[in-house]
């Protein structure tokens, strides 16, 4: 189990402290923050428990709050506001934890795409084979126009340019090719 509060650091006389500690306001020293954390650990844990549902998450949030306030202790100028900073950080971290959980649940609750059954796959393969066989029975130009138009997803103008045909010829080959395919597919069924 993780310790509920950081280990205490023995207080150093003011003469031994570095310039960094002397430049800070009284409420931002590590010792004051540590003492505030120790004194209010249970109430901070209770605050997190109101927002989160499991003890481990609550402990993690409270300890993370201490670390974050410790890292930003230069911003706390008034010793009376140290506890307020800790409380607000606990609330913010709890909200973030809940958002991550909700997002995870949303992602998990999305249904998996429907998978085709073996019968459907076999039927699709049969239809595909019939279509390929019917395509082989078309005239070469009809087959080229239909493949470029519908399988390569080209516009009629692009097909005309690729094949070196007029736009009217592409339309005519396409129309006749679809009619021949329809007849061949109906005959195969």
| Total of domains | 2
* Order of helical and strand elements: HHHHHHHH
Q: What is the beta-strand fraction? A: under 5%
CATH class category name of the largest domain: Mainly Alpha
- Provide mean pLDDT, rounded: 81
Distance between the termini: 70 Å
Broad structural category: mainly alpha
* Net shape: elongated
Please tally the β strands and state the result.
0
Helix content: over 70%
In terms of per-residue confidence, which ranges show pLDDT below 50 for 5 or more consecutive residues?
17-27
CATH topology of the largest domain: Rna Polymerase Sigma Factor, Chain: A
For the sheet with most strands, the description reads: none
CATH-scheme architecture of the largest domain? Orthogonal Bundle
Provide the gyration radius in Å: 36 Å
The count of helical stretches stands at 8
Pfam families: Sigma70_r2 (PF04542), Sigma70_r4_2 (PF08281)
Protein name: SigE family RNA polymerase sigma factor
Domain RNA polymerase sigma factor 70 region 4 type: 129-181
Family: Belongs to the sigma-70 factor family. ECF subfamily.
Description:
The protein is mostly helical and 189 residues long. It folds into two domains: 91 residues, Rna Polymerase Sigma Factor, Chain: A; 71 residues, Arc Repressor Mutant, subunit A (Orthogonal Bundle), CATH 1.10.10.10. It has eight helices and no strands. The longest helix has 28 residues. The chain is elongated. About 6% of the residues have low confidence.
